[in-house]
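Researcher: We're teaching a course module on how sequence relates to structure. For the next exercise, students receive a sequence and then see the predicted structure as C-alpha cells, so they can try to spot secondary structure elements on their own. Here is the exercise chain.
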Amino acid sequence: MVFIIYFDTSMDIAKLLESILSKEKIKTRLIDLVAYASDAGFYHLQPKAVVQPATEQEIQSLFKFSQEHQIPLTFRTAGTSLSGQSISDGILVDLSKRWTAVNIEEDGAQVRVQPGVIGAMVNVYLKKHHRKIGPDPASINSAMMGGILSNNSSGMCCGVSKNSYHTTKCIRFMLPNGKIYSTENKDDYARFNNECPGIYNEIMRLRNEITNEPALLNRIREKYKTKNTVGYSVNAFVDYEEPLDILAHLLIGAEGTLGFISEAVLNTVPDYPFKSTALLYFPDIYAACKGISPLTIAGAEAIELMDRASLRSVEHIAGLPALIKDLPAPAASLLVEFQSYTRDDLQAKVSHFFSRIQDLSLLYTPEFTEDPYEQAFLWKVRKGMFPSVGAVRARGTTVILEDITIPVVRLSDAILDLQQLFRKYEYHNAIIFGHAREGNIHFVITQAFDTPEEIDRYDRFIREVVVLVVEKYDGALKAEHGTGRNMAPFVETEWGPEIYRVMKSLKQCIDPHNLLNPGVIINENKQAHIQHLKKLPEVEEEVDKCMECGFCEHKCPSRNLTLTPRQRIVVRRALKMLNEAGETNQYKTLLGQYQYEGIDTCAVDGLCATACPVDINTGMLIKRLRRENHSDSANRFALILAKNFKTVSFAVKTALKTGNTINKLFGKNAMKRMTGGIKKIIPSMPVWSNQLKSSPALSKIRRKEQPGNPVRSVIYFPACISRVMGDVVNGSNSVMQTFANISAKAGIRFIIPNDMGGTCCGQPFSSKGFNRAYEHMANESVEKLWRWTNHGELPVVMDITSCTHTLHTSRSVLTDENKKRFDALTIIDSIDYVADHILPNVQVLQKKSTIVMHPVCSLQKMGLEQKFVSVARNFADKVEIPVHAGCCGMAGDRGFLFPEFTGSATQLESDDVKQSEFDGYYSSSKTCEIAMSDATGKNYQSILCLVDECI
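Model: And here is the predicted structure for the students to work with:
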C-alpha cells in the first residue's frame, strides 16, 4: 500500500528561499505543494517548495541553495511527461510562466526558444514560413520546449532524424556548479576547458573509452538507428568530438538530471502544404507490418499502426466507416500520410505506392483523401486511442502509456507476444498503436495501485516486458517518452554494464551530490518503478475520469494566477485522501485555500473540455461545487431575483447611470477608486470598469425598415447585457440599435416582443451554481420564445454569443413540455445571422484595412470560430487573431469581482494586440469586450458594429 504524507515545511524553507527570490516567486502553501505534486505520469512526490525564477542569475542562486542545504532541484515545464521525470520531493522549479520567448531566425529556417513556450505555439510562429519544429509529439499542444528537449521528443512524422537531438543546432545551458555555456559562442569552448577541467577531461575520457572499443561503438550506432530514449544520449560521444558539443547533446534527453537549458536554437523542417491520407485495413498484424516497407520506400511521412483492440476502442466515433466494426478479430490498420511541396509530387508518391499494392494483403482498396477536414478527423481518431481507454477505465485506476521500439522486421512477432502478456496479466482493455515506420509502438493499460497484489501484478508484467523487448528482440524500452522513474531500474539491463558505467560516471562527474532530479535515469533502486505510485481515490465523476495529463492547462484563463483544471482535480483528490486519513487540520487548510484558488477564480468557460482527451469540463465541476456551497436561503434569494429579473435589470441600469454621473462630477476614475476602496473592506464588492455605460431603452430603438416586403422576419432577443450596457464611446450606437440598422439595410424585419424585459438565458445563475434560479429562467425563456416565434415558425437571433450558447445547452434543465418546444425552435447567434442572412442581402461599400478580433470561448465551443473570422474578412483587408487569443476570464462578473483574474487571463493576448495599431477591435460578447478594452486601452465593440460601418 502506498500512503501519501503531506509535510508542512513551508515556513522554514520559504524563509530560506526569500534570501534569493522575491516572495511572489515562491510557493509553499499547502495548496501549491499539492497542486504541483502530480504530473501526467503515475508517480507522486510532493515538493517542499515550488519556485518560479525569471532569470539565469536566479537559477544560479537556486543551484547554490540546493547544494548548501542538500535539497534536490527538479526543473519542470508543462508536466506532460509520462514516466515520473517532472515531480520532486525537493524544490520544484516551474519554468512555465516566465521562460516563453520565441524568435524566428533565418526566414524560419531556425527558431530560438526558451523552455516555457509550448511546442504548438512555436509552430504557430513558424507557419507563415511554411516551417515547423521537427519533434511532433501527440502532446505538442500542451508540451513545452523544455520538456520536448529534455525528453528528446519525437512523434508521428519526425522519425529518427528529425527528433529533438538531431534538430537542435545550439543550446545555452547552466551546469549545477552555476557555470553558463553556449555552443553558439566559440569562446565558450576554451572557457569550458579552463573553468571545468574535471568535467572536460572526464567527457574526453569517456569518449575515448567508447571510440577505442569497437563493440561499444557499434552497439551505440546500432541502437540509435531506431528511436531510443533509454538512459543518456550516449550517441553524442560518437557524433561529436568537442566536449562542449558532446555535453550539449547529452543534455538533450537527460530529463533535467545534468543541467538547465535556458535557450535553444533549433533547425526547422518543412511544413508541407499538400498531404494525402488514408486508413489501410489488413487481415492481421503480419500483413500490416508487411506494408511498412513499401510505404516507407514510397516516401510516406507517417505510418501509424493500430491493432484490432485499438480500432475497437474508437469504432463508436461518428463518421468512421461502418466496416471497422466488422473487421475480423486479428485485423490491423495503418494510418498513412504522404506529404509534399507540390500536388504533382504528392500524387507521384501515392501512385508509386499503388504500383506495389499487389504485393500487400489488403482487405479493402485504399481511399486517399486530400480534404483537410477528413484528414484532421483521421488523425483525431488516431490520437483518440490513448484517451479512449482512459474514458472507459474503472474508477480509481490510472492509465499507463508505455512505448517501446522493436526492429521493424520483427515487429509483428513482438506485438503478438505483447498481446499474449496482456492476456496473461488480465489487462483486458489494453491496446497497441504506434509509429510503425520506426518500429515504435505504444501500449496502453489501466492499472490500480491500491493493493499489494495490484502493485505486484504490474511489477511482474513490466519485468516480463523488459525481458521480451531486451532479450528476445534487442529493442528499446523507451522510444520517445524518456526513461523517467519507470525504466530507470532497467537502463543497465538494456545497455549492458559498460555503457551503463559511462552514464553513471557522467552523472557523478557533473552532479556529484545527486541533487539534480535524483532517481531519474540513474537509479540503483531496482524497485523504483513500483515506489511513490500515485493514488487515485474515487471522488466524483469529473475527477475520477481525469488522467492528469495536463492537456487542458494551456486553455485555462487562470493558469498564470491560481490553478489549472488538472490542478483543481489534483487538489480534490488530495482533499479526499486527507479527509479519509483523518488529517483534519490540513484538510480544513486545503479546503479554505481551494475557495479562491479553485472555485472563485474559475471562469467555468468549459474550454478545458475542448482540449481534454476524455472530455472533462472542469467548469461543470466548479459549478456543482458552487451549487453545493449555497445555503437554502441563498438559493431562495437567487430564485426571487430570477422571478423579478426585470427589477434587477432596472436596478443595474440605474447603478450604471449613477456611476457615470459620479465620474462626470468627480473625474473619470472616481468610481474605480471608490469601489476599489470599498473592496478592501468588503471583498465581495465588484470593482468599477470605465467600460461601463447604460444602454438606451428598448423603446428608443430606431427602426428604419426598407420599403417593400421584407426578405424575412426574425425574433430579435437582445441579451440582458445588451439591454443594460451600452458603448462607452460617445456617439456610438448600442448593440441593439446596430442590430436594427443592419437588419434594415438587409431588408429583414425584426420583432422585439413587448414583454422582453426581465427575460434572460439564465447564464448569471448557471455559472454561479444557482440551479433552481437557472431552471426558472431557462424554462421561462423557452416558453416566451415559443409564443413569440408562433410555435417555432420564426428564427430567434441573439446578440451575445455566450448567451446563445447558454440557451443552446439548456435542454437538460427544461420541463418535458419545454423540451419539445426547444427542439422545434431555431436559435441562432449574431455570427450566423450576419453570415447567412445579412451578407446575401447587402452590398459591402467599404472595407477597413486591418482589424483585430477576439473570439470568445462560446464561439469555440459552438464551432463558430472559423465562421466568425470568415464574416470579418468581408469587411477588412486583413483580419488578425492574436497568437495568444483565449478566454479573457471575464466569465460574466469574475472580472468585476476579481480584476486580477482578467488581468492575468488577458495579459498575453493584450501584449500581442499592443504590438500593432488596428482600424478596429471586435468581438461578440459585451463582457469580453469590456475585459479586452480594459486590457488593451482600445475600444472593443460587437462585430455587428463592423458590419454596420461597412454595408
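Model: If you want an answer key for the exercise: The two ends are 70 Å apart (CA to CA). The first strand starts at residue 26 and ends at 27.
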